[in-house]
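Dear H.,

Thanks for agreeing to be a second pair of eyes. The structure we're designing against is below in token form, covering all 787 positions.
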């Protein structure tokens, strides 16, 4: 999931979010500053904007900022640089305020000749790891437009000093705005020329940039003159240049298509196989005595719901796009007209009233706010949560929904449901019973919500029947919502996470839920309590003789820290007293193995373009470890983790480092996953030579091309939904077949699949190691198919 923020002048050229087909407009927040005018040159507007962004970005800021501000300079084109100085400095100040450390910034500029502009570029150079100045080919060649690209914001005192300095300049320029109309007072220089000249590299860089763009501008002007004098001239190279550019940047040459229309049932079919559960009746726990009858209470986690059977306000909500949100009610989908979700989202929620404090003029008053509380989710946007436990999907939902959906300020009409923030409070068993006992003795005096008269036409499906005489009480802490009817307490039981803290090198992490479990380790999703960032913690039990694999993984991940397709390790700690190793890792989504398992269970097959994408992602990841002299030795779909932009390789417990002067590594045991293990990893080389001094000592050779074999098995599975040896059920027979040099792997022809792709798979699954292609050769072949 992602989110965006925008800042624009309040005018006729506002954001047209509902014209966007790239992403849901709900994930974008358009803002206009404390003055509501969207003027970036007002320093308090900048402060208001970065305060809002940091509140919604865990206090860190955005990963990337782009600014493309401008205004008409008709009649003063040669003064555009001077007239734009205030805009330049305010856009750069905004970047220093809202971009997180190591984030990036792109902004549009024009001529860069004055001391003011050069000084500003000089300061930005000091704040970022590197900068570039680029005039794209798509930019009009005859004008002076260009773009400043800043990579990697530095997080140091120098950046803070420059940020404060630019803020003072922006404030002064705003104060001088009236004076400039009637006097010559201005700011012409912000960094002394002597300091700039002392940096030879910067001066050479900026001079060369201006000269290069100037030369190209001359060529553009001359070309415009030629075409202007002869209207019949045509440049036939444009289509060829477009094709070559797309190929160079590896962008598929396909037309942009609108998002397909879908119905709530279409989305439901993507998430589940059967709809029967939607009509299931709610199990009601009427009192504490019945609640105590739950067996194995320690296996449950609980939360309290504010809905009842009478009010029927707890149900499924789905967004199918184009601001169309539906609710499942009385065995049919009912349109909800004043609610915004992300397209593709399918949630189980309850709609309640909450009492909140709101400042009205100079007084703080208690007001009623309608809120949707999320209980569970099947989909969040394009992300499926159907197969996750409530523990997993619940926390994932809170991280996405409260930061994306409820915080967005999209306004299609004046009548919009103002959704409150979503609370997700867990209860332990004893806390739950205590809350229930207290609630039974609490006075009941708050009426149930009814829609205002002006809302009745658009929210008729939410009206509560007044004959039910249901009375609701809402605690001010917004953590428990109870309903009573004729003194009967009715509370649906809902599972929620039960938090637990763990420390790694004195930093607190809150365990949220289990991500996976192996024979020697458990992996949890966790939250850094201080920075509020998600991580994964791998707990390795060394009592089972797993010290070698645990410390081996740490050693190899240290070496691979700069590889962007390998899971990142942040920290680790060995607890001597417990003989336990804790490894703090980057958290991704589900693994590729789960994706393939889900497809197999639903009798579905991946489309070719998805197969090619996954194949390329895996090849690039394995290439990175081979370049670093590492063979993974256990490649399988479960060891490729979904991340935002593709796949990352994980689990280096049995991986090995191959020495620079060697081509393989010898092991005293065969290890790997049976459906993906290579033949040579199963063959004991020591038994081949009776006269060898090492005869009788097991020796299994692993090479880089052992990984190639494993990849071939995965590619085969992507294509056919099963591995090459999946049809052999008996383990011993399967191992013998893998080691059999005469066994022929079958490659049935698939409709719509080029034979070249099947050949690429067979190039990986060659019994003889020397006949297999290397990773580099495979990448070349797959790139030819993919691009």
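And this is the sequence the design step returned. I haven't edited it by hand at all.
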């Amino acid at each position: 999931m992602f989110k965006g923020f925008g800042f624009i002048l309040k005018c006729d050229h506002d954001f047209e979010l509902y014209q966007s087909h790239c992403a849901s407009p709900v994930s974008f927040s358009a803002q206009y500053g404390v003055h509501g005018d969207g003027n970036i040159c007002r320093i308090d507007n900048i402060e208001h904007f970065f305060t809002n962004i940091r509140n919604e970005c865990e206090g860190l800021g955005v990963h990337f900022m782009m600014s493309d501000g401008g205004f008409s300079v008709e009649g003063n084109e040669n003064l555009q640089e001077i007239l734009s100085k205030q805009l330049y400095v305010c856009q750069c100040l905004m970047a220093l305020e809202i971009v997180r450390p190591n984030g990036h910034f792109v902004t549009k500029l024009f001529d860069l000749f004055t001391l003011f502009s050069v000084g500003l570029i000089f300061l930005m150079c000091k704040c970022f790891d590197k900068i570039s100045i680029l005039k794209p080919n798509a930019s009009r060649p005859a004008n002076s437009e260009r773009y400043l690209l800043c990579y990697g914001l530095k997080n140091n005192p120098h950046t803070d000093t420059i940020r404060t300095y630019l803020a003072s300049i922006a404030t002064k320029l705003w104060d001088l705005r009236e004076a400039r109309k009637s006097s010559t007072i201005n700011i012409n220089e912000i960094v002394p020329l002597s300091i700039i000249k002392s940096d030879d590299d910067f001066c050479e860089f900026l001079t060369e940039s201006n000269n290069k763009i100037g030369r190209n501008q001359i060529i553009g002007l001359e070309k415009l003159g030629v075409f202007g004098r002869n209207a019949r001239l045509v440049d036939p190279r444009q289509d060829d240049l477009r094709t070559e550019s797309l190929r160079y940047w590896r962008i598929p040459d396909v037309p942009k298509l609108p998002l397909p229309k879908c119905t709530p049932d279409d989305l439901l079919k993507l998430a589940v196989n059967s709809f029967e559960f939607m009509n299931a009746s709610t199990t009601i726990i009427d009192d504490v005595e019945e609640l105590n009858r739950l067996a194995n209470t320690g296996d449950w986690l609980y939360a309290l719901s504010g809905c009842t059977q009478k009010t029927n306000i707890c149900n499924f909500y789905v967004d199918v796009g184009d601001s169309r949100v539906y609710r499942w009610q009385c065995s049919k989908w009912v349109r909800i007209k004043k609610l915004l979700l992300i397209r593709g989202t399918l949630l189980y929620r309850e709609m309640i009233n909450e009492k909140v404090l709101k400042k009205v003029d100079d007084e703080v008053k208690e007001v009623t706010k309608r809120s949707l509380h999320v209980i569970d989710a099947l989909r969040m946007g394009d992300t499926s949560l159907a197969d996750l436990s409530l523990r997993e999907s619940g926390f994932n939902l809170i991280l996405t929904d409260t930061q994306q959906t409820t915080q967005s300020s999209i306004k299609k009409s004046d009548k919009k449901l103002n959704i409150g923030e979503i609370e997700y409070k867990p209860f332990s068993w004893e806390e739950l019973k205590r809350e229930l006992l207290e609630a039974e003795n609490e006075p009941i005096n708050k009426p149930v919500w009814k829609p205002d008269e002006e809302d009745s036409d658009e929210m008729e499906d939410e009206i509560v029947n007044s004959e039910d005489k249901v009375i609701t009480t809402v605690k001010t802490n917004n953590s428990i919502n109870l309903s009573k009817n004729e003194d009967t307490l009715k509370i649906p039981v809902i599972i929620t996470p039960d938090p637990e803290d763990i420390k790694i090198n004195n930093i607190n992490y809150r365990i949220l839920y289990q991500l996976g479990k192996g024979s020697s380790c458990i992996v949890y999703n966790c939250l850094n309590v201080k920075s509020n960032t998600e991580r994964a913690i791998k707990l390795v039990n060394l009592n089972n003789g797993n010290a070698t694999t645990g410390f081996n993984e740490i050693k190899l991940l240290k070496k691979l820290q700069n590889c962007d397709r390998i899971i990142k390790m942040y920290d680790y700690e060995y607890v001597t007293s417990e003989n336990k190793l804790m490894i703090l890792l980057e958290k991704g989504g589900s693994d590729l193995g789960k994706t393939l398992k889900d497809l197999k269970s639903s009798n579905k097959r991946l489309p070719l373009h998805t197969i090619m994408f996954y194949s390329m992602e895996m090849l690039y990841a394995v290439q990175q470890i081979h370049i670093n002299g590492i063979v993974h030795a256990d490649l399988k779909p479960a060891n490729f983790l979904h991340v935002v932009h593709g796949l990352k390789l994980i689990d280096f417990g049995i991986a090995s480092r191959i020495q620079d002067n060697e081509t393989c590594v010898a092991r005293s045991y065969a290890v790997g996953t049976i459906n993906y293990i290579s033949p040579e990893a199963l063959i004991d080389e020591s038994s081949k030579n009776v006269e060898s001094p090492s005869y009788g000592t097991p020796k299994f050779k692993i090479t880089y091309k052992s990984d190639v074999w494993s990849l071939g098995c995965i590619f085969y599975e992507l294509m056919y939904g099963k591995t090459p040896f999946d049809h052999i059920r008996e383990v011993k027979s399967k191992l013998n077949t893998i080691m059999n040099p005469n066994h022929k792997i079958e490659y049935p022809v698939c409709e719509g699949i080029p034979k070249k792709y099947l050949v690429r798979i067979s190039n990986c699954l060659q019994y003889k190691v020397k006949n297999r292609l290397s990773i580099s050769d495979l990448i070349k072949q797959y790139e030819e198919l993919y691009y």
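Two observations from my side: The first strand starts at residue 4 and ends at 7. The chain has a mean pLDDT of 76.

Warmly,
E.
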